[in-house]
Predict the 3D structure of the following.
Amino acid sequence: MINRLKQSVKSSMMRRKIEEYEAALDEQYESYHDWILKREKEYRDTLSEEGGALSVRIAEFNDFCPEFVEKADSDILVFANQKEFLDEYAPLVISDYFMQNPECILLYGDEDEWNFARTIRMNPWFKPDFSPDTLLEYLYYGNVLAFRTNALKQALRHEQEICFKEAIKALYEICLCMSLPPKKGAVGHLKYVLYHSPAIRHLYDNSMQDGDRLIKTNGKVSVIIPSKDHPDILDGCLRSLVRTADDTDYEIVVVDNGSNDVNRKKYEELSITFKFNYIYQPMQFHFSRMCNLGAEHAKGEFLLFLNDDIEALKTGWLSHMRKIAARAHAGAVGAKLYYPDSKIIQHAGITNLRLGPVHKLQFLEDVRPYYDGRNCIDCNVIAVTGACLMVRREVFAECGGFSDELPVAFNDVELCFRIYKKGYFNIVCNSIALCHHESLSRGNDESKEKLLRLSAERDKLYAMHPDLYGTDPFYHPYLCNEILDTNYSYAYQYPAGCDVAVAEPYKWKQPIKDEWYNECLQISMEYAGELEAWTDFPGKKGDFLYFQGYQFVIGSENPCFVRYLLCRDEKTKDVWKIPCTDTFRPDLDKNISEGHASLCGFALVIDKNRLPKGRYRVGCMAESLVGRQKLCRFTNKYIEV
């Protein structure tokens, strides 16, 4: 009887908590329609007084021909797929952009859709900044093309071979002519929604044609492979290389930083079998030095840095990467990588978020296009992984090779940053795929020492490139920049986490019981560190720490738990407990099977002067609101006070 009464009371409390959760969820949600209207008004409020001074003429794609352009007397010519879907403020914001950017001759913007009644805007298409290699794949500029009229007239007079029977194809050809080779500032991206229609995004797809209008070469590829004490793994890599390289001219350089005598002999035997240049130089693992050493001994015009745990899958990948790397504007060229025995994506280019460099689309199955085909086409990215990175020797030399300051992590990203800042464009070839047996060579990065090293090298990366912190020209600022969601999510779906009141930590005198440690509590600590290193958030100046992530309880109703952050002093073992603020995380409901998980995100800001000096290991605790259950776990994230 008593047990039934307890269960009845508990069920009633659970229902009430779930109702409170659903009410809180409604408060957190903001529609794209409301969010974008605010952003656009803020943008228009910044326009200069003379913003609309340039005259603008609007036409449709089907109007495009030399005769129409020659007769135009406006400063700006805008071609829209269908004029009725053009935004009412498009002429104003386009005119202002050309006024503020006199070097710009061609401009494109973002797009979304109306609902059937034209009352709600939805399904945004936020595009990257100028991406020449993406353009060579298809007309990603979209359904609105704005030209400086005089520049368009000159281009048409110069390009006499364009066929105007298909207006879209002709527009694509003239866009290529005016965009390539890349000229700084010539092509602009207006971060404003100019078009509202469910029109086909791939208006003109060039994938079935030879989109490489630039230099081609048959130069030698030097395949540089760092490897130590893994002759069996290297053997598999080389066998796949030989099997798939086809008629590509290549050489192999293996850099060994100190294998034992038995494995060194095996490497020497492999060097005879595969005819590679074997460089044995004992030293502590230092990826940058090993790659630079291999480059010094390489003879090829192209340098391909390859992990020894890469397995080539199909013929043609090497020649394709070489063709892309030969483009005059090309910097580092990477490839799509799969996890072993699967089509699960490990790498499809690197995106530079506020959290740091991440592999977008990682862990997703490569069975359908994601976000405008980001996993299908060869496209521009801020960086590619050093597990498979090709670059022309001259570009590598111009940029100074891999940085000696980053021995293990982020050296590939740092090189790509320098290449980008030199004016080249990094490219990931998603039209080809290799298998990456990730961590076979080096082990995983879950130990305390490795995570601390990873954090330190990430900090060093941004100390070397502070202008690129949280910035990625190929990832729209209206896409989410603050979470580890693998897909391309929108910023409006995730309210800023650090906009919370400063929490008060208090020393927890009660000892943590062994039975509270439970893997049912799942934690992702996305950020733990200085608030100023995360963002310059108004209203919070000084010595503040910021924590962000999510925690949920497997097999339980998550609205019935309250979440806390724990900071445990590594020396004294004292534990400080801080209440978390729930944050809206719709990605959790999409990615995990536990119900009611959208408010399992957390964020908190604390004044670090409220904690004694020391190093703290960060953890989380979930306490039941309908019972006595407590769950606790510590992560491998640490903070210094």
